């Protein structure tokens, strides 16, 4: 192994890639099981995308409405996911989320409180009862800071501002990772008995997104190239409410909490258009009129939810329809109005600033809009990918031994569409499970020898763009990919456009192979962008192939050429893998029959 | 930097000149760029435009671009600010925009500084230690009014602008003796958490150098989260230190107790 001298090599039992909620929770758990645990993050610790989560974490604690329990949460999650979810994961999630939330409190999180001194819970789309534990509209910050401050005292080795470029395998098992530090560009090898991917999503494959620069599909792509299967990649969630103006902030998230607190959607004619189209699955769960909807927001247990609190896929499509029909706002969105509640509440202005402080500042500072008196302009923005690495529902291990995934990078919990608030709870429930099982796996994996030839080949690939200082600008290729995905594989899809997208992705792959970077390896964002390209192109191809294969509309996938659900398509998940010749192959993975007791729960809750 | 009122977003596109500091620990200089600025753009957009079109290797940290992660801290026309929340139309229209890295930390490259000292300081502060749960199911009963003060401090996004502007760190380089406003706020959040039972008062006086703060309030002025750092966090902590160490009756008790 002397040839590894060129690399900085470190040894660990469990290596966690990503330091958002899932990664930190996994690391804390693995460390608690006695594993020497390392965490790698692309940013500084505490800056991961989890900080942007606003509304809350879903957990059926029943603090606000005691009719809530895990069975209701389970059936809400399955209904929201179009029944393509991994039911085992949906069950674990619904059962374990309350304990994981309480654990955060024991570690220092300071949640908003009910009048009787419990953790407060709020309404959110698709959740039957108020279920989201929250801190104003900055719940993600509270989660990440709590895990970070607890985690640094658990003996974790933390590697900040480092990027992984390949997973290392030996005899089909994962034995570590290869990457570099952004500060100096030095190549590093982490040897480990097990690896947990917790790298988040793929939003940067699209032009309009609420996601940060980190969301370049690294984990999905690393897993895929290491032989893991990706599942449900066609399901990309377009959050209904992103900012649309000014142009430079287009896509920034406007929390669903605005609607949870009583915000309503109107078109240019002033009409609450969400009342015009109620999906069959929810027809018994929606308010008859505006008055009943407001009573629901105020906590009336006999009232049904306003239609603004239907699932995100549906709300996003309704907004899209209004805009396309010419009933949009001046800058191509629709109006989201929370200020109207002053008709109902004497202290509405203070109430809004207290419940939605970040939204108030975001609009005031970036758009010059006072949300307590003016309506916001909002439109759909790429927000989340339900698909990802296919994992075992109990252990979170992929089909590659030793490779685990948790949080957004993993598939299964959310099926065809994720409910708001189910992401933060996903992170802590499955972060905990992945950490535990990775630690156990690592104990039985003493051989961690890396393959030098693989290390050297991957290093050459990572550095090759420096050989072409006059090659094409990687930023230009990234922008063209984002346009392709936004325009051809976006919120409304058709066969011909997606086939065109596949051609374009192939051409972009060819251009990426000739991309060049100038300068040197120290903190060079051009180089980092060149490396991101392979990940973005891999996940874009997976999204497009799966979306073409699924000839129906379900959850987040809307096909103009197949506008209805199909029974046939309800029986499988799409799975892609890398074939021996390097091409992407797609298979249909049959969905196992639902356990009888879970089936009975779903029937009971209909 | 003038703080033009919100609600005035200009509609014109114009060319603006930038001077961006470029270099590393061995030194550097301002480099000029000009950028086409469209309505609503923030300083970070301009830096990205420079990266994409003129200087691929211009180093800057950023992440959420929505004022929530605290990564893109820099000094804009001399004022410590988040680049993502500084709108171009709040800056003087006909003047060159100066962008430099934070001055209180060592330079890595261009706009990126080495903020690792902050992580080391934080790790030394005694962690949260809750009292035993109030209820049989392992939960606590606390009321909104009891948690509000700690919640104010927990809004902190760790941009370290308060550290950057603090003269004790920026001008006097007392990094070994003073933890800075960020970690006084952090300590205050722990001390004022109704569940916490740990005592950090002696550390504040002896190790953390709270006495260095002379209440200049520069930190409060630059805080993008509008945390009332000096009045709500530092002054109450100073009062606790005084009560513990300088109150004559407590001192007398300590003498007898040895």
CATH-defined fold name of the largest domain in chain A: FAD/NAD(P)-binding domain
Radius of gyration of chain A: 23 Å
Oligomer type = heterodimer
Number of helices of chain A: 16
Q: Could you tell me how far the N terminus lies from the C terminus of chain A, measured between alpha carbons in angstroms?
A: 61 Å
Rg value of chain B:
22 Å
Which residues of chain B form runs of ≥5 with pLDDT under 50?
1-8
What is the residue-mean pLDDT of chain B, rounded to a whole number? 93
By DSSP (H or I, 4+ residues per run), the number of helices of chain B equals 10
Q: What are the segments of chain A in which pLDDT stays under 50 over at least 5 consecutive residues?
A: none
Please state the structural category of chain A. Answer: alpha+beta
Features:
heterodimer, A: about 600 residues, alpha+beta, FAD/NAD(P)-binding domain, Flavocytochrome C3, Chain A, domain 1, Methane Monooxygenase Hydroxylase, Chain G, domain 1, seven-stranded mixed beta sheet, four-stranded antiparallel beta sheet, B: about 260 residues, Ubiquitin-like (UB roll), Fumarate Reductase Iron-sulfur Protein, Chain B, domain 2, 10 helices
What report would you give on this structure?
Chain A is α+β, with helices and mostly antiparallel strands. Chain A has 3 domains: about 300 residues, 3-Layer(bba) Sandwich (FAD/NAD(P)-binding domain); about 140 residues, Flavocytochrome C3, Chain A, domain 1 (Alpha-Beta Complex), CATH 3.90.700.10; about 130 residues, Fumarate reductase/succinate dehydrogenase flavoprotein-like, C-terminal domain (Methane Monooxygenase Hydroxylase, Chain G, domain 1). Chain A contains 16 helices and 18 strands. In chain A, α2 crosses α3, α9 crosses α10 and α14 runs antiparallel to α15. With about 260 residues, chain B is of the alpha+beta class. Chain B folds into 2 domains: about 100 residues, Ubiquitin-like (UB roll) (Roll); about 140 residues, Alpha-helical ferredoxin (Fumarate Reductase Iron-sulfur Protein, Chain B, domain 2). Helix content of chain B is about 35%, strand content about 15%. In chain B, the strands form 2 sheets. A 5-stranded mixed sheet of chain B has the order 2-1-5-3-4. In chain B, α3 packs antiparallel against α6 and α6 crosses α9. The longest helix of chain B has 17 residues. The N terminus of chain B is likely disordered.
């Amino acid at each position: 192994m002397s040839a590894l001298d060129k690399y900085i090599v470190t040894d660990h039992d469990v290596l966690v890639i990503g330091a958002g909620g899932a990664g930190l929770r996994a690391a804390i758990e693995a460390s608690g099981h006695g594993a020497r645990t390392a965490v790698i993050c692309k940013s500084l610790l505490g800056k991961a995308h989890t900080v942007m989560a606003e509304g809350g974490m879903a957990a059926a604690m029943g603090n606000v409405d005691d009719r809530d329990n895990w069975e209701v949460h389970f059936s809400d999650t399955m209904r929201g996911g179009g029944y393509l979810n991994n039911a085992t994961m949906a069950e674990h999630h619904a059962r374990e989320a309350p304990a994981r939330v309480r654990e955060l409190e024991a570690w220092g999180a300071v949640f908003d409180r009910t009048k009787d001194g419990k953790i407060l819970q709020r309404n959110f789309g698709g959740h039957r009862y108020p279920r989201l534990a929250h801190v104003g509209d900055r719940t993600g910050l509270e989660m990440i800071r709590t895990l970070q401050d607890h985690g640094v005292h658990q003996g974790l080795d933390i590697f900040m501002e480092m990027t992984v470029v390949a997973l290392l395998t030996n005899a089909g098992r994962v034995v570590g990772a290869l990457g570099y530090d952004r500060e100096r560009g030095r190549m590093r090898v982490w040897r480990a008995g097990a690896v947990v991917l917790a790298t988040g999503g793929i939003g940067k494959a699209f032009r309009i997104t609420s996601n940060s620069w980190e969301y370049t599909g690294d984990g999905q792509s690393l897993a895929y190239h290491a032989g893991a299967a990706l599942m449900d990649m066609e399901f990309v969630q377009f959050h209904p409410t992103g900012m649309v103006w000014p142009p430079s902030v287009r896509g920034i998230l406007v929390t669903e909490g605005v609607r949870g607190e009583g915000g309503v959607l109107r078109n240019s004619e002033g009409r609450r258009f969400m009342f015009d189209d109620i999906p069959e699955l929810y027809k018994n769960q929606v308010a008859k009129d505006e008055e009943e909807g407001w009573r629901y927001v105020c906590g009336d247990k006999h009232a049904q939810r306003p239609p603004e609190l239907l699932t995100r896929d549906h709300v996003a499509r309704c907004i899209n329809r209004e805009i396309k029909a010419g009933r949009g706002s001046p800058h191509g969105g629709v109006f989201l109005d929370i200020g109207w509640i002053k008709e109902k509440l004497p202290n509405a202005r203070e109430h809004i600033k207290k419940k939605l402080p970040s939204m108030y500042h975001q609009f005031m500072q970036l758009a010059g809009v006072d949300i307590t008196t003016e309506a916001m302009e909002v439109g759909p923005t790429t927000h989340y990918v339900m698909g990802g690495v296919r994992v075992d529902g109990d252990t979170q291990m992929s089909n590659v031994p030793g490779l685990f995934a948790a949080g957004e990078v993993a598939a299964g919990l959310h099926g065809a569409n994720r409910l708001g608030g189910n992401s933060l709870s996903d992170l802590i429930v499955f972060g905990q499970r992945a950490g535990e099982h990775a630690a156990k796996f690592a104990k039985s994996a003493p051989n961690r020898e890396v393959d030098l030839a693989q290390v050297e080949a991957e290093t050459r690939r990572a550095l090759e763009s420096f050989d072409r200082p006059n090659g094409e600008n990687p930023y230009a290729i990234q922008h063209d990919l984002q346009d392709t995905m936004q325009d051809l594989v976006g919120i409304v899809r058709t066969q011909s456009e997606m086939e065109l997208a596949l051609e374009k992705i192939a051409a972009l792959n060819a251009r990426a192979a000739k991309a060049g970077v100038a300068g040197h390896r120290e903190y060079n964002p051009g180089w980092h962008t060149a490396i991101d390209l392979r990940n973005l192109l891999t996940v874009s191809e997976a999204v497009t192939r799966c979306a073409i294969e699924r000839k129906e509309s379900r959850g987040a996938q809307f096909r103009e050429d197949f506008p209805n659900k199909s029974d046939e398509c309800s029986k499988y998940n799409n799975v892609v893998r890398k074939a021996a010749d390097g091409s992407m192959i797609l298979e249909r993975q049959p969905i196992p029959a639902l356990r009888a007791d879970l089936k009975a729960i779903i029937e009971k809750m209909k | 930097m003038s703080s033009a009122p919100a609600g005035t977003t200009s509609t014109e596109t114009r060319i603006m000149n930038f001077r961006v500091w470029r270099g590393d620990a061995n030194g550097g200089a301002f480099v000029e760029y000009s950028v086409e600025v469209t309505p609503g753009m923030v300083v970070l957009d301009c830096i990205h435009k420079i990266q994409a079109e003129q200087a691929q290797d211009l180093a800057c940290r950023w992440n959420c671009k929505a004022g929530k992660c605290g990564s893109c801290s820099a000094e804009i026309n001399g004022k410590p600010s988040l680049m993502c929340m500084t709108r171009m139309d709040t800056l003087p229209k006909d003047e060159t925009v100066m962008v430099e890295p934070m001055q209180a930390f060592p330079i890595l490259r261009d706009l990126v500084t080495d903020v690792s000292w902050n992580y080391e300081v934080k790790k030394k502060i005694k962690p949260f230690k809750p009292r035993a749960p109030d209820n049989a199911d392992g939960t606590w009963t606390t009321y909104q009014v009891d948690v509000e003060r700690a919640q104010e401090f927990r809004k902190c996004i760790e941009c370290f602008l308060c550290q950057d502007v603090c003269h004790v760190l920026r001008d006097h380089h007392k990094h070994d003796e003073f933890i800075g406003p960020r970690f006084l706020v952090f300590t205050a959040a722990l001390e004022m958490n109704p569940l916490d039972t740990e005592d950090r008062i002696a550390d504040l006086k002896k190790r953390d150098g709270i006495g260095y703060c002379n209440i200049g309030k520069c930190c409060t002025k630059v805080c993008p989260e509008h945390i009332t750092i000096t009045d709500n966090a530092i002054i109450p902590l100073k009062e606790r230190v005084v009560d513990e160490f300088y109150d004559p009756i407590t001192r007398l008790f300590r003498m007898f107790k040895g």
